[in-house]
Amino acid sequence: MDNIKTKQQNSENTSIHNIIQFLEISELNSIKTLMKKDLKPQILCLLYIKIISPTYVIGGSSDKTIKIWDIVKDTCIKTLTGHTNQVNCLLFMKLNENFKILSGSDDTTIKIWEWKSLESVKCIKTLSFHIDSVYSIINFPDYDKSLIASGSADSDIKLFNITKGECLKTLKGHTGSVMRLLNLQEIKSCLLSTGEDKTLKIWNLETEICIKTKIGHGDMVLDLILVDTETLATCGKDAAIVLWGLKPFEIKNILTGHKGTIRCLVSLNDKIPGIMLSASEDKTVKTWNKDKGECINTLQINDFFINCFAFLNDYSKHDIFIASGNTNGIVQLMKF
Predict the structure, then answer these.
(1) Confidence of residue 3 (pLDDT cuts 50, 70, 90)
(2) What structural domains does the chain harbor?
(3) Please, which residues have CB within 8 angstroms of residue 102's CB and are 6 or more apart in sequence?
(4) What is the pLDDT of residue 17?
């Protein structure tokens, strides 16, 4: 990996560049490897479960397992087995003082894992609402705490009650795989979805209909995040990042610079307003200033693709840490 020189700052808090310390070669050399096997199963999804412990990260893998790591001890402390194909998505939630993990898999199922303690985590229910791979799961804590939505390669969005384990409604409208789902806290009955059909759809959960369909990409949309309270970002196979304004709902900007499929995004807005990261199959991680619409740093990675990010926003009071899962079967910490 090429050396990356630290950008020295003359003063503090005068600009975005005075806030960010870009990834340094010294930090990359000390990255913690949390899981590595000879077969190198891909890490496909990550969760940071700060509500239980600020040092726990959960990962779903192509080896069909879910692993829980302690990032201080640098070790896997729990492995959950039960899926018969790769684990694509995870959701951690609190329901009536109980903790649960939901996992979606290529085996078409969603598993509900009950967490009473680290030693007692177990699967308590398997839901088979879809007929193809499950790619995304979200909940709606400000709208209905028992309501879950799942998106699948069967092009459907399923709404189900986690307590009863019953499918309540199927939302149809996508013409290909549903890749990502997102809820907006300010609009409690709103669901957003993206997919293989290049679209971003907005659903009203109360009427259960699609109220808007937007197209901003030229190919499959792989990720969807809330950058801040007024901006969404999507990315995908067309190597572009589209920024969407919410008021009104329209394209604000298109960020270009990657040379391959962009697999995932993460916003650092809680710590650094307007800053987000993207990871691409061109083996780079780019740092973007959303407000200026420009790339402010590029990190070259030579040996793997990054599939997913998790922002460890409560891990450190002074530094910013991002966990990433990649095609080498490794979870890494990057510090800003």
Answers:
(1) very low
(2) 218-302 (2.40.10)
(3) 90, 91, 92, 93, 110, 111, 112, 113, 137, 148, 162
(4) 37
Give the C-alpha separation, 127 to 140, whole Å.
18
The residues near 26 (Cβ < 8 Å, ≥ 6 apart) are: none
Rg (CA), the chain: 19
Let me know if 13 is exposed, middle or buried by CB neighbors in 10 A (0-12, 13-18, 19+): exposed
C-alpha 30/C-alpha 135 separation (Å) is 32
d(CA 147, CA 332): 32
| Contact of 205 with 143, CB cutoff 8 Å | yes
User: What pLDDT, in 10s, does the model give residues 10-60?
Assistant: 433 333 333 334 444 334 444 455 544 445 789 999 999 888 888 999 999
Closest C-alpha among 309, 305, 310, 308 to residue 328: 305
**Which pTM was predicted?**
0.88
What is the Cα–Cα distance from 63 to 323, expressed in whole angstroms? 19
Looking at the DSSP bridge assignments, the partners of residue 115 are 99
What is the CB-side half-sphere exposure of residue 161 using CA atoms within 13 A?
A: 5
Please report, as a single letter, which amino acid is at residue 113. Answer: W
Best CA proximity match to 32, nearest among 60, 71, 69, 1:
71
Contact 74, 32 (CB under 8 A): yes
